Every structure is written in C-alpha cells, then in structure tokens.
Amino acid sequence: MGSLFIRFQEAVKTLAKNPMFANNRLFARDPRHLQFEADVNRLFLYTSYYRLGANAEEKDAEEIIDMASKASVSEQQKQVQENVHYQLTNMCQAMDSILLPDTKNGASEANNYPRRSGLSFAVGTGVASANKPDVPSTRPLNRAELSNKFRDHFQYTLDIRPSQIPHKDAGQGLFLSGETNAGAVLAIYPGVVYSPAYYRYIPGYPKIDACNNYLITRYDGTIIDAKPWQLGGDSREIWDGSDLVDYNAVPSKSQESNSDRAWRMLSKPLKKGHTENFGEVLERRNPLAFGHFANHPPKGSTPNVMICPYDFPLTEKDMRVYIPNITFGGEEEPVTMKRFGSFWFKSGRSGNQVGESPVLKTLVLVSTRSICDEELFLNYRYSNSKKRPEWYIPVDEEEDKRRWS
C-alpha cells in the first residue's frame, strides 16, 4: 500500500500544476474557482485511495489516477461526496452499536430522560416545548468513554490538549490518537451553518471574526460558526446553537475608527425570530466533532489534513444525530444566492431544485498522508489582502491568493 500512495502523491503534485479543468478564459477570470477545482482533484485522489483499502491492486490505483486526469470536476465532486458519505455511514453505524441500548430482554442500560407531565401542558408551561422532538435514550457513556470505544472500532480517535506549536496564541490543539491512512475522514467541523442569505444573523456582524476564531467559510460562501459548539457535551440532547457570548460587548483587539463604529451601528446583526425551527437532536458526545481545534502548521511543518466540503443528505434520518451542525433559518427552505465579487444576492429562486434532495452543508477534515499519534495541522489559507497574525506562515502563497481572489 505504501508504494501505491507514492504513486498517488506523484499524481497529486502533477495534476496540481495542470489547469486542465479550466480553460484560459476561466483561469484569467476566476483563479478562485481554479483553486477549488485543484482541491476537488486532490480530495478525489485521497478519498478514493482510502476507499481502495489495504488489499488494493496497482491496476485499481492506476485507474483512479487516470480518472483524476480525465473526469470533470462535477464528476469528481460527486465521487468525493460518495467516498466521504461511505466513511461517515460506517462511523455512524459503529456509534449506534456503542450507544443504542440493547432492548432484547426488555431491559435498557440507557439514561432515563424525564418527561413533562400532562399538568405542565394543561397550565400552559409546556406550550413552547410541545413541538420539540423526542430525545431517544442512549447508554450512559460520557464523551471520553465513547471516544475510547470509537478507537476500538477505527484504530484512532481525537484528543484536545495544549498545542505543541511554540507561539503564545496556539492555545488548544487537535491530536490524532492512534493511526490512519491518507484519505480518512478524521473530523467534522461543528456548529451553526449560515448561508449568505443569513450573514446578518451571525453574532458580531459585520466584523464577525473580531471576537471569534472559530469561523470557517466554504467555497460556496457558506459560513460555519463552531464557537457555540465548543467541546460538545456528555449526552444526546436538543441543541439550538445558542451562544451566550455578547459579541458586540467584547471590544475588538484593533482600535476602531469613527467610520468603523458608524458601520457597526448601521449594520447590527439581526436577531433570531421566536418562530424559527431552530434545534435538532444531536449527539453532543460525538468524538469527531472537533474540526475547529485544528491549528495552522508552524514554520517547518506541513498540513496533514485538508478541508473537504460535505453535503449531508437530510434524507439519511438515522445518521442525522451524528452530524454536529444546524442550519440557521431551518433546513426545509434554503434561499438560493449568487456571488458577484465580494457580494451575495438572492437569485430569485428559493428551495431545492426539482429532483434534488435537501442537504446540510458542512465540512470535514480529510488526512493527506498516513498519520500516527500526532497533532493535526490545517492550512488556514488566510487572505493576503489583509494583515495576518505574526504566527501565520503561508503554506503556499499562490494558493492563498487564488482562494480569496
């Protein structure tokens, strides 16, 4: 398998230099899209390599490499989605086997969740909660216990501990405990998902990143805020994405000008309406829900994971509890937006197109090589048009430029 991976690495390097998916006009007009295509190509190779398995034959690897040089970007995107979904399906099934109680003998090891009495509804105190989904019973394992059992199944799990990066702002880091191959789905980026139509609801808007280091943006403009998720929890519960931090009350690290203050006053974040369906039953112990703790690699190091957009099909009801995200504004009627430069506008159509299933737009971290008991590093790709932190060492300045062009 090691020799096959060398072939895949060579293919990644070769194809990354070949703008085969974009014609010259597209390359000149939208280098950002070219970078997206290059990333899809890499993800196609890595996730397909992982799916081949330990007993893969060289002809299978050569076929995938050949497909990577010929298949369209949309075809490769579909395969990446299938490869990621295949892995997550196996992981969710394993967590079901760990957490769901055995009721064959009529006995359950699960937690017993208190139910509201009929009296509480009669006097009106339960009206607001009447439509909330039921939280199914699970075995009384804490987050650490579930993580250890997950490792028994997949030979790795994730740990959060002080980063090994030698700078004062490194904080906590994400560590892989165990080992895995390239192309493995190692983590999910948790939190509240905002489409461009709901940017003004992001806490702290318009300077949403002034007091929040846990924001990430997909190429399609979707923003995920992991700050409310934090470290998860020790139970399966209804999670509504609440965050107690008052972003507007926390001063920015940089001094604001008069125009900055005026813009902030005119562009205050909108408040969430009381009628929104804003909450899902989620497994807060999920051992994969820590993508927001991965640090940018320090000088002399390279990334060992990369971002992969993942559109979770909401038709997969059994898996939903393990996807640690909720969509702001609800999951039933997404608003279609189009990007023009730095701005987003409604396209005039709402909802999914005919024949399309509803999806939850999130992100996962995929390994780019074999990893064994080490800290996970993710290329942050900060824009080079703005002042970047002192600790930020670009992995590839050209990639940063294309990503935010």
UniProtKB/TrEMBL annotation:
Family annotation (InterPro entries): SET_dom_sf, SETD9
Q: Which domain of life is it from?
A: Eukaryota
Q: What is this protein called?
A: SET domain-containing protein
What species does this protein belong to? Oryza glumipatula
